[in-house]
């Protein structure tokens, strides 16, 4: 029996998926809620094992980011399927980089969603039209070759923090943070998206879904 968690801030979506999982007979919905925090709190209080598969809405209404949500769930031991309209390539790229197993469109037949859960539960990659179209047609996805550390440094630096503070927050040397920013700038130049100033870095970070629009120190 595959243990499934549903995280979506639209109750009607969750109820539909719960009913479909019940009909499938091989999937048990162990949690249904509107945020990753609720799910992790439930895990703590119930002492339950992590769900095999978490079906996660791409954008929740609690102010959390895609990277935060996917990273926390994957780090907790679950495979993650993004359940979304898949019309935000930057956010889809971010989900992939954070470790999501794939994406299934909210316009898909419910049987296709159940098949996607089955596929990911077997440990197989989810290769479907929605996932491919969300990333392959977006030039910036191919350009996103930053390491995890470079992404972390860029995210904080582009959001307005001084490089010294970025280094302190990440627990790395100032020289390491500076070297990471230098490498980030070089990589953006190599793909034809130069970012010589901090404002340019903020723009690139927003384009790649690392920083929300409106962030930065102005």
TrEMBL record:
Instruction: Spell out the SUPFAM superfamilies in the cross-references.
Output: C-terminal effector domain of the bipartite response regulators, CheY-like
InterPro entries from the entry?
A: CheY-like_superfamily (IPR011006), Sig_transdc_resp-reg_C-effctor (IPR016032), Sig_transdc_resp-reg_receiver (IPR001789), Tscrpt_reg_LuxR_C (IPR000792), WalR-like (IPR039420), WH-like_DNA-bd_sf (IPR036388)
Which Pfam families has this protein been placed in? GerE, Response_reg
The answer to whether the entry has keyword Phosphoprotein is: yes
- Keyword terms, alphabetized: DNA-binding, Phosphoprotein
Query: An example of a Gene Ontology BP annotation on this entry?
Result: regulation of DNA-templated transcription
Question: 4-aspartylphosphate-modified residues are where?
Answer: 57
What positions does the domain Response regulatory occupy? 3-121
Fetch the SMART domains from UniProt.
HTH_LUXR (SM00421), REC (SM00448)
A single MF term (Gene Ontology)? DNA binding
Q: Which PANTHER family match?
A: TRANSCRIPTIONAL REGULATORY PROTEIN DESR (PTHR43214:SF42), TWO-COMPONENT RESPONSE REGULATOR (PTHR43214)
Q: What is this protein called?
A: DNA-binding response regulator, NarL/FixJ family, contains REC and HTH domains
Organism field: Microbacterium saccharophilum
- State the taxonomy lineage: Bacteria, Bacillati, Actinomycetota, Actinomycetes, Micrococcales
